[in-house]
Design brief:
Length: 164
Amino acid sequence: MPDSEADLPALLRELDDPQWLEWPQNYDRGEIAVHFGGLVARLEGDFAARCTAEQDTQDSSEYGRVVVPGDATVCGTRIVVCVSKFGSLALVCADNPGAFLGTEEAQAEGELDGADLARVNRALVELGYVVIAEELLESDYNGPSRLPSHVQRPTWWARFFGLF
């Protein structure tokens, strides 16, 4: 677990093993499923709402997504949590990945409430996930792995959440 946001780029580099693109070497699908189920249950309890979840995404380094419905949030915009198959990395975004240039922009535009974001981040951290800002994931990828040829612009998002 990194000590600060400044340590997150180093964590991404540490998890980046060119021999294991879609999932890490010691990937345990069952363990990840249990962990993810705990996240879904926690968010449903914290927001007192049924959250939709997609999991065990095929041909992707993203394990799954949990969606907190808009009617359970202060601003009325759904919150999407994406979970990677690598190192319990998680991304939180308003509406969808890429809809805003990160959670700060979503908050500035009145689409994401700070207390809702804090509730999601707290759940993730308490469950052992590492929250990675969308801005960092959208930065240019400069690691050792060869990303698939269909990736137009290699980013850290493509490496740890993309399709293969």
